[in-house]
Design a protein that fits this description.
heterodimer; A: 113 residues; mainly beta; 4-stranded antiparallel beta sheet; 0% helix; B: 107 residues; globular
């Protein structure tokens, strides 16, 4: 069974940047789209960004468009989320998701001064 | 953007009860809806995809229906492990959107 492992979370100040990564040790992403989904404390699930296998179709939530960039390296079986101009409201638990079906265990991002 | 309005936001029920959760899309999205169960401390789990197809390994007491703008998730006979938060997701077009969630609690 494919396992997704997120990394790169942490505590940062508002206005700074952070880069999340997701890998699938021993597996490939196959030809599926990959996504990032987050859950802020006490809130529901929020889809953040998605990217097709060939990176030709990319989408973002309105709340992050222009600040976050999703990318993938299929040869390295890795997915990334470059998060710039971070805001307090970006504080959340971030999940990597394959085909909106297989979920990682998540990584925490805290934006606070 | 497609908005998904999910109701109710919370639901109190007993083991053995039948419950239904509804999502309404702000525009037609064919059958591009999934339903997810989220338990505290765990990753969400997809129960239903394509509005009505049961994910492999998911108990048959879970069922989904709908197309266009109205979608429902039904749990036929609640079991103790079913008490969790449930979300619909539309994946017809970017940006994908989740419903607000339904917290299912034990009465």
């Amino acid at each position: 069974e494919v396992q997704l492992v997120e990394s790169g979370g942490g505590l940062v100040q508002p206005g700074t940047s952070l880069r999340l990564s997701c890998t699938a040790p021993g597996f490939t992403f196959d030809d599926y789209a990959m996504h990032w989904v987050r859950q802020a404390p006490g809130k529901g699930l929020e889809w953040v960004a998605g990217i097709s296998y060939y990176s030709d179709v990319i989408g973002y939530a309105d709340s992050v468009r222009g600040r976050f960039t999703i990318s993938r390296d299929n040869a390295k079986t890795s997915l990334h989320l470059q998060m710039n101009s971070l805001r307090v409201e970006d504080t959340a638990f971030y999940y990597c998701v394959k085909d909106m079906y297989v979920w990682g265990q998540g990584t925490t991002v805290t934006v606070s001064s | 953007d497609v908005q998904m309005t999910q109701s109710p936001s919370s639901l109190s029920a007993s083991v053995g009860d039948r419950v239904t959760i509804t999502c309404r899309a702000s525009q037609g999205i064919r059958n591009n809806v999934g339903w997810y169960q989220h338990q505290p401390g765990k990753a969400p789990k997809r129960l239903i995809y394509a509005a009505s197809t049961l994910q492999s390994g998911v108990p048959s007491r879970f069922s989904g229906s709908g197309s266009g703008t109205e979608f429902t998730l039904t749990i036929g006979s609640l079991q103790p492990e079913d008490f969790a938060t449930y979300y619909c997701l539309q994946h017809n077009d970017y940006p994908y959107t989740f419903g607000q969630g339904t917290k299912l609690e034990i009465k």
